Amino acid sequence: MKLRGEVEVDEAYAPVGCKGEERARPRRRGGGRRRGRSAAQKKPFFVLVERGSRHPLFLAERDVSSKTVAKVLLGRVERGSVVYTDEFRGYGHVGRLGYAHFSVRHSGGVFAVGPVHVNGAESRNWHLRAFLFFKRGISAKLAGFYAAAASAFVRLYAEASLAACHWIVEVTRHVA
């Protein structure tokens, strides 16, 4: 599935671990907490959303380097498309890949300048986190599967029309 036109790209981090695997030694009490927003136990997920579409694409990757960003964009977005990102340094070379690139500088308190924003992708980050929250932890080895499942979940359930939600409420009301 290749996205085209105007595409918003953002990254999100979700906690991953060794779920389903035997541990060599018992887990430490306190979970090995670190100060700040440590990414040691978190996996990066890319969120790609074509503007005008309600279908996000979630991708789990090893890191968020510029090489990984290039691989994700070249594999999932048609060249010549307009790509909107935030100012994260991994997106610095997007314009050299054959895309028109515009970014928003969140660190300066700017979240939208006319049509330049990534609010659609950032709101889909919430859908990803909500989907993963109910799994009570995911395995780092199966993060790609969970990313694909979250994409399908959002397409089928989270982005359903309001009429469908009313229908579900009516059906459950008559069942109870």
Topology:
Layout: E1 6-15, E2 42-50, E3 56-60, H1 66-76, E4 82-86, E5 100-104, E6 112-113, E7 116-117, H2 119-133, H3 143-158, H4 162-175
Parallel strand pairs: 1-4, 4-5
Antiparallel strand pairs: 1-2, 2-3, 6-7
Helix pairs in contact: 2-3
Our estimate of the beta-strand percent is 15-25%
What is the fold named in CATH at topology level?
Nucleotidyltransferase, domain 5
Give the count of structural domains. Answer: 1
What is the annotated CATH architecture? Answer: 2-Layer Sandwich
State mean pLDDT (0 to 100 scale).
79
Poorly predicted parts:
none
Largest sheet: 5 strands, mixed
Secondary-structure element series: EEEHEEEEHHH
Q: What strand line-up does the widest sheet have?
A: 3-2-1-4-5
CATH superfamily: Ribonuclease H-like superfamily/Ribonuclease H
Rg calc? 18 Å
What is the number of helices?
4
Please give the number of β-strands: 7
CATH class: Alpha Beta
Structural class by helix and strand composition: alpha/beta
Helical content class = 25-40%
Q: What is the general shape?
A: globular
Q: Roughly how many Å apart are the termini?
A: 41 Å
